[in-house]
Specification:
Largest sheet: none
Helix content: 55-70%
Oligomer: single chain
Shape: flat
Structural class: mainly alpha
Mean pLDDT: 79
Strand content: under 5%
Length: about 200
């Protein structure tokens, strides 16, 4: 039954990820918010007791995501209107990461998401199932009907393409040391080399 749910989720829900991502841009503040909303939407859909009774999975996907985005916007609006006294007088200090580091992390995350979105469709599905959803090769093979070697190939291809995209944007430093090939060994002596 779990296998049927996985297949239903991949074929009826997950395949609309790019469209859902574009749709949620209208209601959110950035890629991090979009990813949070998508994940929360996925959790709600995956947890449906009777997923087979859903007549239009795509419509339900977008409705849940829309409602979550509206709910989040209302929550933010309420938080924005709440006033606080001067925090210094209260002796409250933030232990959060500085804003510039948060922005840099968000920019890197958004760039990584963009790199994943640029992958070819099958490669992207394999990559996301393996690296994001942490499915095993056997599970991915069963769901997508591809061999283990194909899965390995697509995961490696995804990693390389994402790395290259991040390098092009200047978000990854080139720190790989160039490794010199080992010098060939010379056999010395009277010809008693290993034969």
């Amino acid at each position: 039954m779990a296998d049927e749910r996985h297949e239903w989720f991949l074929n009826q829900i997950f395949r609309h990820r790019a469209a859902l991502h574009r749709y949620l841009r209208k209601f959110t503040y950035g890629a991090e918010d979009i990813e949070d909303l998508i994940q929360e939407t996925y959790v709600r859909l995956y947890g449906l007791a009777d997923y087979r009774a859903v007549d239009s999975p795509k419509a339900l996907l977008f409705r849940i995501a829309h409602n979550l985005a509206v709910e989040r916007a209302r929550s933010r609006k309420t938080q924005a209107t709440d006033s606080m006294a001067d925090l210094e007088q209260l002796g409250v200090y933030s232990k959060e990461v500085p804003a510039d580091e948060q922005l840099d992390s968000r920019r890197r995350f958004e760039s990584f998401c963009a790199a994943v979105d640029r992958l070819p469709p099958l490669c992207r599905r394999v990559f996301v199932l393996r690296k994001v959803f942490k499915l095993s090769q056997a599970e991915i093979s069963e769901v997508l009907g591809v061999s283990h070697s194909t899965i390995e190939k697509h995961v490696a291809k995804g990693l390389v393409r994402c790395r290259d995209h991040l390098r092009e944007l200047g978000l990854l430093e080139v720190t790989e040391a160039k490794i010199k090939p080992a010098a060939p060994r010379r056999v010395t002596g009277g010809g008693d080399a290993d034969e």
